[in-house]
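Morning run. Coffee first, then this:
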Amino acid sequence: MSNIAGRVREVFRGDQRVDADALIARLDAVRRFLTAVDGLLPDSDLVPAHTLVERAGTRLALSRDHTVVALAGATGSGKSSLFNALAQLELSPVGVRRPTTGVTHACVWGPLEGANHLLDWIGVLPRHRFVRESALDADDETALHGLILLDLPDFDSVQRSHRLEVDRLLGLVDQVVWVVDPQKYADRVIHDSYLREFHRHRDVTLVVLNQADRLPPAEVPRVLDDLRRLLDTDGLTGVPLLATTALDPAGMVGLRDALERTVAERQAALRRLAGDVDTVVAGLDELVGSARPAGGPDDAAINGLNRALAGAAGVPAVTEAVERAYRHRAVAATGWPVVRGWRRLRPDPLRRLHLPGPGGDQADPAESLVAATSVPDPTAAQRSALGLAIRAVADRAAADLPAAWPGAVTSAARSRLGDLPDALDRTIAGTDLGLDRRPLWWRIVGGVQWLVTLAAVVGLGWLVLGYALRALGLPALDNPMVGQVPLPTALLLGGLLAGLLVAALTRPVVRWAARRARARADQRLTARVAQVGDEYVLTPVRIVLGSYAQARDALRDAARR
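And here it is:
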């Protein structure tokens, strides 16, 4: 990998010191990574990281004055004999039948009290704990004070519980001494299942070719060279390789010296945890990759989402109702007063949708809590278009993310899909559609209509009065003339014609103004619907993208040494 994992220097650190504060900072970065991805990535991918944080925190909180070294090996490799030879006591039973070692034994150099909490955590039963202290030793064992040596069960045991116990303990100990014998040192099980998996723990790994006394002296270097070749293939270049024999104290000198150096340095626990961090970081690297995501979906995807939301919210139906309501109200305000009452008997189009009615009145607030509007439900095509638009937003936002993240982005984009209908309905109901004020020109035209209607009524009344006087034989009224037309007739006909003319001239203006009102309402509704889309779709997506950026930065910090 050329990204974060590639930046982890896989070198042998056996002679390098690990700074405890730097290690704690790396572990804290892993914690930040887990916090950032919580609920976003599959839990199965995060188990090693959670295990690391838990185990590392516990190990660092326990005794740092003790170094836990495990002897691990196959049946017949002689690790129990090595264990007893190092302790110079018969502590672990040695047998010839499988399994020869069924439980873990521990030998502590120094007071047992200081090591008990650590052994409790490791899981060694009290009856299998021994203390390597004797008045006869004088200062011979002082160099190993602080060592906790474990004799593990055989990893190739016929009993599965033994293998599971070995695997558990190998994840807890500070250093592992792999014990192989001349007959099975090349066995595929130990190389493929164990040694190869420890390539990031080279600095806390030691391999011994035990029972070297069974080989002719001339064969020992050849076998060691072949074993070194196998270890290099396993990725364990630089790991110390020793030849030992439990039957001859001289054959234990090299192993004892290595253990004394390990105990004196007090670095094994830190190096082991550093290797664990390397392993976890390498495993998590493919979850974050190296690409830095964009700030979110592009404008095209957002515009498509807004159009789909507008369709699902019924914006076209509402804007059409706004246009019809404007015409309805304008005609009622500027039409002939004689027919205005009839016009008002017709329901306002916005009232049918439970939208703001004449004068800006809102629907009953208590009712709006249940159903804010009566806008028609979105059609199947509109719901499908909305789903595709949300998917497009998620796909565009996750285009550059590693394979583990697009699913999280899509889930975030759809996380509040069930709340969208009510949110859109409330938004439509709460939007000012611009019809709450009566334009000035409505009042002017309405006033003109009242004047010409009044003139027609005066003319009609004048004419009726004249006919009534003549019918009663009374003197007729003296009607002034307007040209060749009596004034009452001119008032009546002029008022009627003027009213019709004003209505005819006003009608195209009303249609033009209604279209403008529709466009204005469409703009306002679209803007409000876009806010809903930002809150319910885009914001969850941006949160996931932000979590990805935090996880990426945290993992980069965890990879630094």
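The two ends are 18 Å apart (CA to CA). Good start to the day.
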